[in-house]
Design goal:
With 173 residues, this protein is α/β, with parallel strands linked by helices. Helix content is 34%, strand content 21%. The structure holds zinc ion (2 copies).
Length: 173
Amino acid sequence: MLVDIVPVGDVSAEVKRAASGGLRSIYDCEVTVNDSQSIPSGAYDAGRNQYCAESFIQLAEREGRGDKNIGITPHDLYYRRRNYVFGLAYLDGSGSVVSTYRLQTSSDGGFSNKSAADIFENRVRKEIVHEIGHTLGLEHCDNNRCVMNFSPTVQEVDIKEETLCGTCRRLID
Ligand SMILES: [Zn+2]
Ligand SMILES: [Zn+2]
């Protein structure tokens, strides 16, 4: 499997590296990083001051060269009535997206002595692995340590591991 990372906007080298590393270690896949793309036209909602996640998925599907293509963006994303999303993917689809916008809170509440940069990169890895999991057919998992657990807050993201639990792993192997 080849996963193509499609940066949308100004995505740092650290974020690209974290995303590539997470995907390689969990899915044993090839990872490429595409050219930076500009924000898809029509994606911005002025009333919400946010961007439509689905437009970013369509862009990743259109520009990506992989079996799976994941957009990464620093911009704040929404999906339907949800106030924000860290990411979005369709089950078994080829495209997905992750926003780093709300993963950047500096603290993990004092649970670890990791640096803010490490905490942020770990969150990026988990959310990227999570969205690609959906594109491989995985749904949300009840195990709060599993990367496929639904984690709408950074606190929940910090609790889960970067890895798939045994049940999820067996579903894709
Ligand atoms: Zn999910
Ligand atoms: Zn699981």
